[in-house]
Amino acid sequence: MQILFAFSNSPKYNEYVNEIVFVDTYGHLLGGKPMKYGYFDDKNREYVITVPGTPLPWINYLGRNDMYGLISNTAGGYTFYKDAKLRRLTRFRYNNVPRDFGGRYYYIKDGNTIWNPAYMPCKTKLDSYSCRHGLGYSIFEASKNDISSSLLCFIPLNDNVEIHKLVLKNNSKELKSINVYGTTEWCLYNAVDDFSNFQRNYNIGEVEIGKNTIYHITEYRERRNHFSFFNVNRDIDGFDSDLDTFIGQMNSWTNPEAVTKGISFSSKASGWSPIAAFRNDIKLQPGEEITLIYLLGYTENDKEDKYLADGSINNKKALALIEKYSTVENVNQALDDLAQQWTKDLSKFQISSPNKKFDRMINIWNQYQCMTTYNLSRSASYFESGMGRGMGFRDSCQDILGFVHIIPEKARQRIIDIASIQFEDGSTYHQYQPLNKKGNADVGSGFNDDPLWLVACTSAYIKETGDLSILNDQVPFNNTLGSEVSLFEHLTRSVNFISDNRGPHGLPLIGRADWNDCLNLNCFSLSPGESFQTASNYDSHKAESVFIAGMFVLYGKEYCELAKLMNKEKENREISTAISEIEKAVIKNGWDGKWYLRAYDAFENKVGSKENEEGKIFIEPQGMCAMAGIGESFEMPKQAIESLEKYLLCDYGVQLLSPCYSKYHIELGEITTYPPGYKENGSVFCHTNPWIVIAETLVGNKEKAYEIYKKYTPSFIEDISEIHRSEPYVYCQTIAGKEAQNYGEGKNSWLTGAASWSFVAASQSILGIQPTYNGLILDPHLPKEFDKIRVVRTFRGVVYNINIFNKNSGIYEMTVDGIKSKDKFIKYDNTKTTIDVEIRL
Ligand code: BGC
Ligand code: NOJ
Question: How do residues 281-298 score in pLDDT, each as one tens digit?
């Protein structure tokens, strides 16, 4: 069938959509049913968005070390240094209308037409538009009235500066005289305060005006030793630094008075809202092109060195950055360095399979998302305000699982940081702030799965690197100097904490909650607004979690392996005993006949049982207990997976539970507050789906594993972007389940454990390449569709070229450098740099 996207300049044939589709450049429906808003450009590792009007803002991240920016497909978003709450550099207004408003706003005034290179905020109809989200950069290409623009935004590898390179070209046959405005709105550093404490904030804003540079120096004279700056690499024709003056009374960023009049007011901010807005008056001859480089930078000075002799701020570091990035060559070089770093990082795992949707996830986007979740945990996205949660303990531990092969040294440091917020009894703070790495006392502790995730990520790190020495690192409790013990001792406290806190059925106590933050069995909340995660109105000391039991068996075994490697016989023995006790407890009290129970509540009633009216079966214990192999001799994992397929599988993956709760159950907590099909109340909570993918491979269902993977993996549902609504290149936290009104709608994209777990499931279970303490296991579970694949995997510096030929024959044959192997294992051998592996199935 012939399918068309009608663009104002060139109609495009779209091979994927099964309908005739007409959409204008703005995403407005002209006819038919729009399903796609762009395409994957795999060669350039980009997703190219072809209409500004995506169903939700489709965003990207800039930065990968200390400075970060969120950037949407219309250049919306903000920038911060290390910590989105405590060191916010630019302002973002939440819950705005439209949702995505405020960002890197550039204005081109060409006669009476004012337009923006990324469409927002003026929404002037463009002659062409595209947004290319790449790895750590975004490029916006547009044209209007014979002027074309290209705006490139990125943060270089090792400098705290967000670069905006704007190229403008006159494609007409006449001289063009235009005014170009580059703007940024400062945040007064503490994002929460900036958004709430106006009686103070409207008095403290300060700037210093330099040559083509505006410095944002609020609080610099007192307790801050840092400031930010905005610069353009060309002499300006005018500036403003006071928001109200620049915008004008009753206007907004869509029609700033300065811009509509083509002037500047030379305003100097004093209190209120400091901004930086530069005007450049530019004449472009026919065919002429001009490049402007804008820098949004951040610098810190020593306390003693904050001012220069003449009393002005010490801007030496800022000037050095400005100098460095004032030339196109240097900017291009920095972009190139960034691209090369990504090539290097991604090269550690590359696949070529018959399915390009699979390959682009594995080779590019899934690994990219893993890096992002590693960097930001759940702090700053378009759904996480950056003002609340810092780094989550369990989140950060799990993020390492999908990230550790990329930069193991960073993972190592993260493990130490995380372990440092553990308490002596083995319990842990639930979150910490990245800037000071201190545990977050407001949320506190009591999430009883947390300690086990530390075992999970430490063992994954050691398997990837072979670096057992980390277990001897001295790590404090609660960041308290003098309390240091070995990391191995921290792990011991972790497992002991679970083992020592068991309930009436011999299962681990759940505490405030386990992985499911919303299954709050000791909360009993009646007060509106009370946090389900922190309130504990009735600590029963009875509510138990079958999920944690599964985790204990799975990761307890890892702990025992490590104990053996460390010659800790006693520890190994004790935890092995506890594992078999807990395994027995699950078989006896945690099995509901056809699936694993979810929990026992504070009154010892079953949760997730056929006896319940709603919430009869939950996904989490099926995944975790099956991965742990609990009750294998009774075929429990197989039976549990069959039940789950029967009751939980839907079009977009496996739902968290069924039937969804329709009433508030005080004894179950937040989970029952969500309307059916959303969030923890029965959405496809993507984080949990890879567990099922893994479990399916363990019980021998390779086709099913791949089928489930495809259902919730974004590149496979790109064709229904109108339904899915979220970015087709990254995982969402949830996809609304079948009981929801908006069935299939993805929400909370980007910062989710779905990223790391999906990479683990695809790489270690479907492709079957599993790092172990002393080598690699190669145990693929390939669907028929993958008749021939090639994977290049770097493991501890050795490059494995793995070719798999899959006839689905039920046989397994492996040759390693031409020599037939007896088993599925390749012992690590550091005398080689490359190893050729051939597998026939
Ligand atoms: C959400 C959870 C989240 C928790 C903690 C709940 O409202 O549903 O997904 O983990 O809050 O912030
Ligand atoms: C999101 C949280 O970040 C994560 O820690 C939790 O496991 C899930 N929600 C499920 O509640």
Answer: 999 999 999 999 999 999
385 ligand 1 Cβ < 6 A: no
CA distance 77 to 100: 7
Q: Which of 67, 60, 59, 227 is nearest to 155 (CA)?
A: 67
Give distance in angstroms: CA of 531 to centre of ligand 1.
Answer: 10
Closest atom of ligand 1 relative to the 679 alpha carbon: 8
Ligand 2 atom nearest residue 389's Cα: 3
Residue of the CA atom closest to atom 2 of ligand 1: 517
Catalytic residues: 517
The pTM score is 0.96
pLDDT per residue as tens digits for the range 122-139:
999 999 999 999 999 999
Determine the atom of ligand 2 nearest the C-alpha atom of 398. 5
pLDDT at 7: 39
What gap in Å lies between CA 149 and CA 168, rounded to an integer? 5
> Cα(500)–Cα(610) distance, rounded to whole angstroms?
30
CB-ligand 1 contact for 165 (6 Å cutoff):
no
Determine the 3-state secondary structure of 590 from DSSP. coil
Work out the average pLDDT over 765-770.
98
* Ligand 2 shell residues, CB under 6 Å: 378, 392, 394-395, 515-518, 680
Distance CA 42, CA 534 (A): 44
C-alpha distances (whole Å) from 298 to each of 77, 216, 227, 444 are 17, 9, 6, 32
Q: What is the distance in A from the centroid of ligand 2 to the CA of 685?
A: 9
**Residue type (1 letter), 194:** D
| pLDDT reading at 263 higher than 90 | yes
Question: How far, CA to CA in Å, does 651 sit from each of 279, 737, 827?
Answer: 52, 9, 41
680 CA from centroid of ligand 2 (Å): 9
What's the Cα-to-Cα distance from 502 to each of 156, 375, 448, rounded to whole Å?
Answer: 50, 34, 11
Work out the number of other CB atoms within 10 angstroms of the CB of residue 424.
Answer: 12
Question: What is the sign of the dihedral through the CA atoms of 457, 458, 463 and 464?
Answer: positive
Residue 17 has pLDDT above 60, yes or no: no
Q: Tell me, in angstroms, the distance from the centre of ligand 2 to residue 679's CA.
A: 10
What is the C-alpha separation between 377 and 92, in angstroms, rounded? 20
Burial of 200 (0-12, 13-18, 19+ CB in 10 A): exposed
- DSSP secondary structure string for all residues of 711-729: HH-GGGGGGGHHHH-S-TT
Cα-Cα-Cα-Cα dihedral sign, residues 725, 127, 140, 350:
positive
Q: Order of strands across the sheet with 226-232?
A: 38-41, 46-49, 128-134, 137-144, 147-154, 161-170, 289-300, 226-232, 213-216, 207-210
Indicate if ligand 1 lies below 6 Å from the C-beta of 395: no
The rounded Å distance from CA 522 to ligand 2 centre is 18
Q: Which helix (H) or strand (E) holds 213?
A: strand 213-216
Phi, psi dihedral angles at 35 (to 5 degrees): -125, -20
Average pLDDT rounded to a whole number, residues 367-395: 95
Q: Please report which confidence band the pLDDT of residue 390 belongs to, taking 50, 70 and 90 as the band edges.
A: confident
Query: Going by CA atoms, what residue is nearest to atom 9 of ligand 1?
Result: 517
